[in-house]
Amino acid sequence: MDMDLFVGRLDPDMCVVTAAAGQERAGCLVGFSSQCSLDPVRFVVWLSTANRTFTVAREAEVLAVHLLARDQRAAAELFGGRTGDRTDKFRDVRVREGHGGAVVLEDVEAWFVGRILRRIDGGDHVGFVLDPVETGGRAEPSRLLRLSDADTISAGHPAG
């Protein structure tokens, strides 16, 4: 079955997911995410099991999910094209501590912190179902960074 006929037409918003557990923090660019419930509101992000962010997220109680503007490609390249195994991705970005110790990126379009309700095995990705507990963002929205804007970024930690 050639799913490219279907998924090749999708152009989802990209987001940066950050996780913190103990002294560890990590973040990655994510293309698989969606609201998954209306009442109560729930959101799911899918993290690659090959990614350092997944390793930290397994131990975390909350995750922060950030939407990037189309002109924030440099942030997408940092979080998508570099691996946290070799790079401190947070060294040159403005962050603050959010609910539950979450790492919140300050210069993004919109963000939320979600309490992890459950983890769902999806193959080479695991879904983290989140209960939003804190939100923020810019008053004047910009166009969001989409997959087609970031498709030339080579993964910093390619699936093995």
From TrEMBL:
Pfam families: Flavin_Reduct (PF01613). Residues 7-153 form the Flavin reductase like domain. InterPro entries: Flavin_Rdtase-like_dom, NADH-dep_flavin_reductase, Split_barrel_FMN-bd. Gene3D superfamilies: Electron Transport, Fmn-binding Protein, Chain A (2.30.110.10). Keywords: Oxidoreductase. The keyword Oxidoreductase applies. The keyword Nucleus does not apply. PANTHER family: FLAVIN REDUCTASE, POSSIBLE OXIDOREDUCTASE. This is Flavin reductase family protein.
